[in-house]
Amino acid sequence: MARKMTPAQLKAALNRAQRQQKQAVDKYNREARRYNAAVKKSVNDYNREVRVYNAKARAHNTAVRNHRSRLEQEIRRLNSRPSSTTFVSYRTSVESLGLSYVSTEERLTGRQVTPAERDLMDRVSEEAANSAYLLNAMDGDGAPEDDPTEEELREASMQSELAPFGQDLVDRWSGALFSLSPRNPDAARHFCTSAREVLIAMIDHAAPDQGVVEADPTCDRTDRGVPTRRAKVGFLLRRKGVSVDEIEALIEQDVDNVLTLFRDFNDGTHGHAGRFTITQLSALRNRVESAISFIHTLAVA
Predict the structure, then answer these.
(1) Lowest mean pLDDT segment, chosen from 27-41, 101-115, 207-221
(2) At what angle do helices 245-266 and 229-239 cross, to 10 degrees?
(3) Exposure check for the chain: N or C terminus, fewer CB within 10 A?
(4) Domain map of the chain by residue range?
(5) How far apart are CA 284 and CA 286, in angstroms?
(6) What is the SS3 assignment for the chain?
């Protein structure tokens, strides 16, 4: 039998039921708002990440186009002049590196390229452009409007890139920079001698003979039985997850390019001794700094 309620009790029960209903509605609305806010935040975060990625991709693509455009421009300037009787080996190396970069890019078209491989290709493009610009500068076709002061020309640099290889390399690089002066008739040769030691020491430190042989007992070796530089470059690339033969060959060619530069400068029979302008010495420094940065990228796993 239904319980009889007084008017006051009925009113209280109705009020209680209304409060419970309102509480349930409020709770539902709070949960709905919380859920909608979480969905909105997730969408906003995703859109933000997409915008950041797209911005970085646009900036990267712009940089790539600029590097390639600069390489093409420097090669055109180089080919617009008669061949010089100096830096013959280096000129051949510069032209070959530029052609190899273009042909490698063409062969990689349509293939899946990892971010590490793409980064290395972009860096080679910059390396090739710096090499061609250096040769143009040595032929008197540089950009003097961008010249540093003599003091800036000898300022310390690349310390963070060289520090992992030991203080000795930092000091050797500092000594190389100290020799750069348009008043020093042996500035370029002194600089190149020290710079060559720095680059080779970086490669040997990052790819020690024993480590290379243990990783690949059948690696190419020199007449002395130690791994070749190509084997060391391959070792560093595989450690970074890069195993594309064309990229390995191109990077070996790039390393050989800068070493050819050193050989040309240090070969006294070619008549390269003498004073160089700040434009020329700055181009030389930039080329070697680019190589240090490139080898640092290869060496740091």
Answers:
(1) 27-41
(2) 140
(3) N
(4) 87-299
(5) 5
(6) CCCCCCHHHHHHHHHHHHHHHHHHHHHHHHHHHHHHHHHHHHHHHHHHHHHHHHHHHHHHHHHHHHHHHHHHHHHHHHHCCCCCCCCHHHHHHHHHHHHHHHHHHHHHCCCCCCHHHHHHHHHHHHHHHHHHHHHHHHCCCCCHHHCCCHHHHCCCCCHHHHHHHCHHHHHHHHHHHHCCCCCCCCHHHHHHHHHHHHHHHHHHHHCCHHHHHHHCCCCCECCCCCECHHHHHHHHHHHCCCCCHHHHHHHHHHHHHHHHHHHHHHCHHHCCCCCCCHHHHHHHHHHHHHHHHHHHHHHCC
- Residue matched to tokens 């391959």: 234
Alpha-carbon dihedral angle through residues 235, 237, 243, 247, given to the nearest 10 degrees: -120
Q: Is 140 helix (H, G, I), strand (E, B) or coil?
A: coil
Residue 240 neighbours by CB under 8 Å, 6+ apart: 116, 298, 301
Structure-block tokens of residue 109: 């078209």
Give CA–CA dist 61/149, Å, rounded: 32
